[in-house]
Amino acid sequence: MPSFTHPLSSRLPQVGTTIFSVMSALAQEHGALNLSQGFPDFEPPAELLNLLDQAARGGHNQYAPMAGMPVLREAIAAKVAQLYGAQYDVAHEVTVTAGATQALFTAIAALVHPGDEVIVFTPVYDSYAPSVELQGGKVIYADLAPPGYRPDWAAVKALVTSRTRMIVINSPHNPTGTVWTADDMRALADIVRGTGIVVLSDEVYEHMVFDGARHESVMRHPELAQRSVVVSSFGKTYHATGWKVAYALAPRELMAEFRKAHQFIVFTVHAPSQVALAEFLKRPGWYEQLLALYQGKRDIFRQALSGSRFELLPCQGTYFQCVKYAAISDEGDRAFVERLTREHGVAAIPVSAFYPDARDHGVIRFCFAKSADTLSRALERLVQL
User: Fold this and answer.
1) If you average pLDDT over residues 185-202, what whole number do you get?
2) What is the spatial distance between Cα 187 and Cα 78, in angstroms, rounded to a whole number?
3) Among 150, 280, 316, 338, which is least packed by CB within 10 angstroms?
4) Cβ pair 94, 71 in contact under 8 A
């Protein structure tokens, strides 16, 4: 095909292929165990797969309503009412999305104007900043300092200006596994009180909070809920990341703007999946099973590495474990994970990839959402380093 010869001015000049794709490709090239990209290597519940088959064979194969199947939106509203005491109007305040990344992008596209400032926390999930920049917004970075990766609320408050339009939060936090507390939410509420700032709350790991702690959703805090767009993910919750089905909740005024953008970004989401998920949400006990599953995997992972030369950082939630490797190598984190993949057959993610300036604290991230066999083989290799 002939090349495009006219000069191009990139909207995202600093953006290349994501580190997740890079490391997964490297793992495949070298036959390594992939603990890099955040997806399970085991299947969704068999009952959910059966429900999907029934939905497809039952005639649910045409466009779903733009906001999502009513039966699924009703199930979502019932879920958050039960878990968090939050009441959302099914008709106007709940929208099904094509994955959490689409929900995050849509919220930013709908609510951020050129010149607006958006505060995000580093290390930061890689989709936030490009989404802001594509709208002509300016990203303002607040640091979560290692090893605890806790927010410094005085520093955050100092970043707020008259142009601050949005604060993006993520708890449980990817990549660090930090879980924010009720005190954190109160501090955030103090900062945004009396302003027009919208909170975009990425809560896709809401059901993976360990050691008896409670997930402090913004939906538990009425003052925050009234100014927040909340995003969560069925893919993370039901081991079905490839389905790309998630949802957003927001007060009517914010959701009206969200849906204006949503209808032109994806319009609608895979209908049979929505029907299957709506039915599966009625099943009791799943969130407790999920928590037990991942806390068990975390504990196995940490116990195995506790006698190794890796230094374990706290893991309060998510299915990620961050470690320092200074006792093993003085390489940069990107070089270290590439060598770990090529020579030792285990792929990880360098945490420097979550910083806009590629700041390197000598920390890497493993994903433990893997089968018992995968984890056993990976840990056997890691403890030998």
Assistant:
1) 98
2) 28
3) 150
4) no
Output the DSSP codes for 36-103.
SSS--SSPPPHHHHHHHHHHHHTT--SPPPTT--HHHHHHHHHHHHHHH-----TTTSEEEESSHHHH
Confidence of residue 4 (pLDDT cuts 50, 70, 90): confident
Same domain flag for 255 and 313: no
Residue 9 lies in a domain: no
Burial readout 31-67 (b: 16 or more C-beta within 10 A, e: otherwise): ebbbbbbbbbeeebeeebeebbeebbeeebeeebeeb
3-state secondary structure of 141: strand
β-pairing, 198-202 with 164-170?
A: parallel
Q: Of how many residues is the chain composed?
A: 385
For 27, phi then psi, to 5°, come to -60, -45
pTM value > 0.90: yes
Same domain, 299 and 274: no
The domain boundary, picked from 280, 315, 331, lies at 280
* Same-domain status, 170 and 73: yes
pLDDT tens column, 89-113: 999 999 999 999 999 999 999 999 9
Q: Are residues 31 and 141 in the same domain?
A: no
**Residue 2: both structure tokens together:** 């002939």
Residue 318 reports pLDDT greater than 80 = yes
Average pLDDT value for the chain:
96
What is the domain extent for residue 326?
A: 19-38+286-382
At 86 the pLDDT is 97
What is the domain-level CATH number for residue 293? 3.90.1150.10
pLDDT for the residue 89:
98
Tell me, what CATH number does 107's domain have?
Answer: 3.40.640.10
CA distance linking residue 158 with residue 142, whole number of Å: 10
d(CA 384, CA 378): 10
* Statement to judge: residues 151 and 263 lie in one domain: yes
Question: Are the C-beta atoms of 320 and 177 separated by less than 8 Å?
Answer: yes
Measured CA to CA in angstroms, residue 194 lies from 4, 198, 228 at distances of 50, 11, 14
Residue 70, by phi and psi: left (phi above 0), alpha (psi -120 to 50) or beta? alpha
Domains contained in the chain, number:
2
- Mean pLDDT within 200-215: 98
Residue in 146, 155, 111, 154 with CA at minimum distance from that of residue 333: 146
